[in-house]
Design goal:
Layout: H1 2-11, E1 13-15, E2 22-24, H2 29-41, E3 48-50, E4 62-64, H3 65-112, H4 122-172, H5 177-244, H6 250-307, H7 311-320, H8 335-338
Antiparallel strand pairs: 1-2, 3-4
Helix pairs in contact: 3-5, 4-5, 4-6, 5-6, 5-7, 6-7
InterPro entries: AH/BAR_dom_sf, AH_dom, Arfaptin_fam
Protein name: AH domain-containing protein
Pfam families: Arfaptin
Length: 339
């Protein structure tokens, strides 16, 4: 079979240049050996890879394998360099975090056992203590007001059920129809006024909750950042003071300069956060007075009007403070939500 292929190949006309001219392959031993090698072992792809064109086609269709290998190696090296850079950056970050944590822990224990000094702003510290105490007392008011809402909600629901029962009995008991009817109307009126009072109390609870758990909490988070910055500042200040008492050789001077740089960075951070805390405390106090003045007036007027039986004054109070009542049954989940 090989001899048959060789004889056909020897006389086969194939293109021998890019113009499409044909010719006959010469019958020499070298060509025969090449064809036998291709049939036995396949083409040698280690030298070239043919990606377009046929045998004897333009050289542009042939990409040396060495170029592909070189491109692959270049991409691999670039990926390794990026990975190495990320690893070095992470290692640097962990190292800085470890040093900072060590210094702050050392400073914290020094202050706790009375061996280290701390920076104190007496006026600001007093304002922070007052805020924490105020938040604790307002949280107690919030708990009690929420409990009052829950208890009163049950009373209103009981009045509603009692009014429905009186109405039913007034229709089924002709001899007591008037008496049951009067009581049914009274319970329904109490229920209506109770829902108005619940709307006022819920508005009060919502406003106090926003003040305590959002406004005050936001200020306390800034205070926490300020206290952490104060600890870091004192830690690097103590470190600089210790180095300043050490030897002043070349290595010591370099360490002092680095410590001075870190000290300045943490000092700027501490002063910036101290300014932020001062401003937030000022605005918080103004906002607290404004909010609580309105809410306490609402709470007083609504409670007084309800227990005095003054329905008109209760309704006017809700209008004055822009309290919108929820329609009955709006708190219940919808049929779709229950599914």
């Amino acid at each position: 079979m090989a001899d048959s292929i060789m004889s056909k190949a020897a006389t086969m006309e194939i293109p021998i240049n890019s113009n499409g001219d044909t010719g006959t392959l010469p019958e020499d031993d070298s060509l025969e050996q090449d064809l036998q090698q291709v049939m036995v072992s396949g083409p040698n792809l280690n030298e070239t890879s043919i990606v377009s064109g046929g045998y004897g086609g333009p050289a542009g269709g042939i990409i040396p394998t060495s170029s592909i290998k070189g491109s692959s190696n270049h991409n691999t090296n670039s990926t390794e360099e990026v990975s190495r850079g990320v690893a070095v950056e992470k290692l640097d970050s962990v190292k800085k975090w470890g040093i900072n944590t060590y210094k702050c822990t050392k400073q914290m224990f020094s202050e706790k056992f009375g061996r280290g000094s701390r920076t104190v702003d007496l006026e600001l510290e007093a304002q922070i203590d007052v805020l924490r105490d105020t938040k604790s007392k307002y949280e107690n008011i919030l708990r009690l007001a929420t409990a009052l809402t829950d208890h009163f909600q049950r009373i209103v629901q009981t009045q509603q059920a009692l009014g429905d029962a009186f109405t039913d009995l007034s229709q089924k008991s002709p001899e007591l129809q008037d008496e049951f009817g009067y009581n049914a109307e009274t319970q329904k009126l109490l229920c209506k006024n109770g829902e108005a009072l619940l709307g006022a109390i819920n508005f009060f609870v919502s406003s106090v909750n926003t003040l305590v758990n959002k406004t005050m909490e936001d200020t306390l988070m800034t205070i926490k950042q300020y206290e952490n910055a104060r600890l870091e500042f004192d830690a690097y200040r103590s470190d600089l003071e210790e180095l300043s008492l050490g030897p002043r050789d070349a290595a010591g001077v370099v360490r002092i300069e680095m410590a001075q740089h870190e000290y300045q960075i943490h000092r700027d951070k501490y002063e910036r956060l101290r300014s932020d805390v001062t401003i937030k405390l000022k605005f918080l106090e103004e906002n607290k007075v404004k909010v609580m003045h309105k809410q306490l007036l609402l709470f007083h007027n609504a409670i007084s009007a309800y227990f005095a039986g003054n329905q008109q004054q209760l309704e006017q109070t809700l209008i004055q403070f822009n309290v919108k009542l929820k329609p009955p049954g709006s708190d219940k989940p919808s049929w779709l939500e229950e599914q």
